[in-house]
């Protein structure tokens, strides 16, 4: 039986505002306030668990509510992105405070509806009182939409600007590519902190101004006096690594002290290398394949958490040095799932599936990612039976497969000609989740390969905006493979209308389809379209398909002329075509 919260004393509900409370009434009111607080706490649990309907029923049953009670449910409505319902609830509130107004304002500010920004500004104008959150919320709404003129006007009107509002303007100007204005705002800041510095460095990096970011850190400011300034250094080190500027990354890394500096009598704010600094520099070396320099840094680190251990192991797997990776693995104090998965993936990439399976079997706990890593390892190494067996084992232990699992297993079904199992997987996929593009492509490839073109076309038609280049090529290739040139050519015209850029694979299928159907003139058109319209340089496979097309249909001399005019050396397959046609 449902137990509703206890009702409040009548004195709490009917008290006259401002009337002095008698001792017994005061005691009753104290008890009533305690009950309201108890009711408010009772709302927290269903709201925290996302059980909004239960929370709403509980709210409606409460005999009395404070503004905190109303705000709790308002926040839940806003969190559900139901701004219209939140506004109706707000309008029905008998009492509101600045938190109520800010909660609804934030909902409007976050909304992507085009009319909600103006609604946010109207609400802001109606507010009986505003605090720093109110101003910052509306300011953020403008900057996120790139409306920097409106943001600047609001910023100029702000009675008090805190560091967050200055940083919001900096980030906003960077987002629209106005680097100079962002720099002007930064220079005008009365107080610059590490968050301001990080906003500047990140903004410069996103806009490709790495030199300016470097100058800011190393020449224009005394950043070493800023608490957490090392975060900005780490960001720029990583950016240098991503652009291959390892020397600059190392120079910046060397500027960060290893140990904390001290003044006489007291400790300075921290500016020293942290784990992220070391790891970022290691990643720079690993990106270029310089695992020796990365290992030297790793060995020099005064303290290591799991991240640098995993980074170093990933570096060894990247260069296929699994002997060193394994040595390091057994030194890891407490390897996590990432550590184990790195080893499994590393051995499968080196085609040592047996060693990978050994790590898989020793692993204390396996996630879906681990199963996927091992299953895809079997499939990539063409051990399709192993792929199917491990997938069956995965189901037996109750692990839930995902899109990645099915993509690997479907590929194995294609290679083993197990269409029946593939169809069963298709049914399981439809019952389990909405297939993504990769899974649909794998299903289409399977059905196309074995002539189930109706099923392949049905999947293709259901994909709508999910189609990618692989989707188009899979179905075009399926039609070509099974001699349906008309559908292959028709689908290519749809592909062009959809503004999808074809690839070399697309044109190999089209030329082969024309060859099978004797469409010589159409084949020539596709060959010229590939070269002149799409700028794709023909490969040996394209010339072979073209020579086969025109040679098989009585134009042997033209076929020989094509071979002689090839800008690349014809292989045996190309030279063999005219000879086979003489027979």
Automatic annotation (TrEMBL):
Q: Which key words tag this protein in UniProt?
A: Repeat, Transit peptide
Q: Which GO terms describe its molecular function?
A: RNA binding
InterPro entries, per the entry: PPR_At4g14850-like_plant, PPR_rpt, TPR-like_helical_dom_sf
Positions annotated as PPR repeat: 66-100, 131-165, 274-308, 336-366, 367-401, 468-502
Where in this chain does the entry annotate a coiled-coil region?
Answer: none
Under Gene3D superfamilies, the record lists: Tetratricopeptide repeat domain
Protein's GO biological process: RNA modification
What is the designated name of this protein? Pentatricopeptide repeat-containing protein
Q: What is the lineage of its organism?
A: Eukaryota, Viridiplantae, Streptophyta, Embryophyta, Tracheophyta
């Amino acid at each position: 039986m449902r137990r509703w919260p206890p009702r409040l004393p009548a004195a709490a509900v009917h008290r006259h505002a401002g009337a002095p409370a008698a001792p017994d009434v005061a005691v009753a009111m104290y008890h009533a306030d305690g009950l309201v607080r108890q009711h408010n706490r009772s709302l927290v649990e269903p709201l925290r668990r996302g059980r909004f309907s239960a929370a709403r029923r509980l709210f409606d049953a409460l005999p009395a509510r404070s503004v905190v009670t109303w705000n709790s449910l308002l926040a839940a409505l806003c969190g559900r992105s139901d701004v219209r319902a939140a506004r109706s609830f707000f309008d029905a509130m008998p009492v509101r405070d600045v938190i109520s107004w800010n909660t609804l304002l934030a909902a409007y500010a976050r909304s992507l509806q085009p009319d909600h920004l103006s609604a946010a500004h109207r609400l802001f104008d109606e507010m009986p009182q505003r605090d720093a959150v109110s101003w910052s919320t509306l300011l953020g709404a403008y900057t996120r939409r790139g409306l920097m003129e409106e943001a600047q006007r609001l910023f100029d009107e702000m009675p008090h600007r805190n560091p967050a509002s200055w940083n919001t303007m900096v980030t906003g100007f960077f987002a629209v590519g106005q680097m100079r204005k962002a720099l002007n705002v930064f220079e005008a800041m009365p107080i610059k902190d590490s968050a301001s510095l990080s906003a500047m460095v990140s903004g410069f990096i996103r806009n490709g101004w790495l030199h300016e970011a470097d100058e800011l850190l190393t020449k224009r400011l005394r950043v070493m006096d800023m608490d957490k300034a090392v975060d900005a250094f780490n960001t720029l080190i990583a950016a240098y690594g991503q652009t291959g500027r390892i020397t600059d990354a190392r120079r910046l890394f060397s500027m960060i002290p290893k140990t904390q500096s001290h003044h006489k009598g007291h400790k300075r704010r921290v500016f020293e290398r942290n784990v992220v600094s070391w790891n970022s520099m290691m990643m720079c070396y690993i990106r270029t394949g310089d695992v020796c320099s990365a290992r030297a840094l790793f060995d020099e680190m005064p303290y290591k958490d799991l991240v640098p251990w995993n980074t170093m192991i990933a570096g060894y797997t990247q260069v296929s040095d699994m002997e060193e990776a394994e040595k390091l693995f057994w030194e890891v104090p407490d390897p996590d799932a990432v550590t184990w998965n790195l080893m499994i993936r590393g051995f499968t990439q080196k085609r040592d599936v047996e060693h990978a399976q050994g790590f898989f079997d020793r692993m204390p706990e396996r996630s879906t990612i681990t199963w996927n890593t091992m299953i895809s390892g079997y499939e990539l190494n063409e051990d399709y039976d192993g792929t199917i067996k491990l997938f069956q084992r995965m189901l037996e232990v109750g692990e839930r497969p995902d899109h990645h699992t099915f993509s690997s297993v479907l590929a194995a079904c294609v290679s083993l000609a197990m269409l029946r199992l593939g169809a069963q997987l298709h049914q399981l996929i439809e019952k389990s989740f909405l297939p993504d593009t990769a899974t649909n492509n794998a299903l289409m490839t399977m059905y196309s390969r074995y002539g189930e073109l109706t099923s392949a076309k049905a999947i293709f038609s259901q994909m709508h905006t999910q189609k990618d280049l692989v989707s188009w090529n899979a179905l075009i290739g399926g039609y070509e493979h099974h001699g349906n040139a008309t559908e292959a050519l028709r689908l290519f015209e749809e592909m062009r209308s959809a503004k999808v850029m074809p690839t070399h694979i697309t044109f190999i299928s089209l030329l082969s389809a024309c060859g099978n159907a004797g469409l010589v003139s159409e084949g020539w058109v596709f060959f010229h379209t590939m070269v002149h319209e799409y700028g794709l340089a023909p490969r040996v496979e394209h010339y072979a398909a073209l020579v086969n097309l025109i040679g098989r249909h009585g134009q042997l001399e033209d076929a020989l002329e094509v071979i002689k005019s090839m800008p690349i050396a014809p292989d045996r397959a190309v030279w063999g075509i005219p000879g086979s046609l003489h027979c």
